[in-house]
Write a structure and sequence with these properties.
It contains twelve helices and twelve strands. It is an alpha/beta fold. The strands form three sheets. A five-stranded parallel β-sheet has the order 10-9-11-1-12, sandwiched between helices. Helix 8 runs parallel beside helix 9. The longest helix has 17 residues. The protein starts with 14 loop residues before the first strand and ends in a 9-residue tail after the last helix. Bound molecules: prop-2-yn-1-yl trihydrogen diphosphate and iron/sulfur cluster. The site of prop-2-yn-1-yl trihydrogen diphosphate (0CG) has 16 residues, from helix 1 and helix 9.
């Protein structure tokens, strides 16, 4: 029998269940930091300088560059003729030396440090004020760790990264006078192990007054933990320099996903490597835009007969206000559409 185009049976796509985690994606600190750059561009015009990636995501950075933001790693990269333009400090926080340097250079700065990172800074300073040597649990070289260590005088804080470090670290002072804080984006479970080891060795070790690992990190890890068992593949949307996103990949594997991948864009997906799968877990780090999650789902729908099941573990209602200077400006859905898409509710400033 001849088969014309109308008789060609549709290619049968394999069926796929996508377990879409919630909460996922932007946290309140990331949302606020991006809003600060967008509003600064509205208020002061381009260029607006940003010290370090505002959040660890290339797509966000490139979207802001297209609006007129200029990213630098250090303040001395800002040309003299642009000194009157604002410079925004990234959501990860900065050592005390950075605002001091900005003031010395006569720069106008807007601090987009997440309030929950600032809270950890305050807890570290509180330990120090009470005469304690501070242990910071975190990853060496990460900008948040550099920022938190830079709140304290040199020699008054020690970095501990792993249980192995915690087993061999020797306090430079009286072991009865120690306090700890952590990076906000660590693995909840791994950090509990590091703290337990330190407490075993130093029973007088003082905890911070409030948890250092933030609500967004905790909630995203919990959602991944619930969704991962039985997944043939678990995809986390996020960047390789995003600490919280990388932790989600590890959590997915530990919780039982057969494979887990960190993906920045749908174009990176290697379909041969993905092969035939029946259940896909999907989440996004705190700096990964929802438009990329949509892009990944659309790519799977092209190749699979996919249904999306929401795997929601909790609701988040956190919202952080932008800097006082920017609060009177209007922020529209269109202003944030480059990351949220057009369907998102109006952003609250
Ligand atoms: O997770 P880290 O701290 O690397 O940062 P990212 O920009 O990915 O997301 C939250 C913030 C700030
Ligand atoms: Fe703030 Fe947590 Fe988001 Fe970091 S991950 S910006 S600490 S809310």
């Amino acid at each position: 029998m001849k088969s014309g185009p109308s008789m060609t049976p549709d290619v049968i796509k394999p069926s796929l269940t996508i377990r879409l985690c919630g909460p996922r994606g932007f946290c309140a600190g990331v949302d606020r930091a991006i809003q600060i750059v967008v509003l600064a561009l509205k208020a002061y015009g381009a260029p607006v300088y940003v010290r370090h990636e505002i959040v660890h995501n290339r797509y966000v950075v490139e979207g802001l560059e297209a609006k007129g933001a200029v990213f630098v790693e250090e303040l001395d990269e800002i040309p003299a003729e642009h000194r009157a333009q604002p410079v925004v400090f990234s959501a990860h926080g900065v050592p005390k030396s950075v605002p001091a340097d900005a003031t010395a250079r006569n720069l106008f700065y807007l601090d987009a440090t997440c309030p929950l990172v600032s809270k950890v800074h305050k807890q570290a300073m509180r330990h120090q004020r009470l005469g304690r040597h501070v242990i910071l649990i975190g990853h060496a070289g990460h900008p948040e760790v550099i920022g938190t260590m830079g709140q304290l005088p040199e020699g008054s804080v020690s970095l501990v990264e792993t249980v192995e470090d915690a087993s061999v670290w020797e306090p430079p002072v009286d072991p009865d006078n120690l306090g700890f804080v952590t990076q906000t984006t660590l693995s909840v479970d791994d950090t509990a192990g590091v703290i337990a080891r330190l407490q075993e060795r130093f029973p007088a070790l003082q905890a911070p007054a409030a948890d250092s690992i933030c609500y967004a990190t905790t909630n995203r890890q919990e959602a991944v933990k619930q969704a991962a068992p039985g997944c043939d593949l678990f995809i986390v949307v996020g960047a390789p320099n995003s600490s919280n996103s990388k932790r989600l990949v590890e959590v997915a594997l530990k919780a039982g996903a057969k494979r887990s991948l960190l993906v920045q864009r749908a174009s990176e997906l290697d379909w041969d490597e993905i092969g035939t799968i029946g259940t896909l877990g999907l989440s996004a780090g705190a700096s990964a835009p929802e438009v990329i999650v949509d892009e990944i789902i659309a790519a799977f729908k092209e190749r699979f007969d996919a249904t999306v099941d929401l795997a929601i573990t909790t609701e988040e209602n956190e919202h952080f206000l932008v800097n006082r200077e920017l609060r009177s400006l209007e922020l529209t859905v269109a202003d944030m559409a480059f990351v949220n898409g057009d369907q998102a509710p109006p952003p609250r400033v």
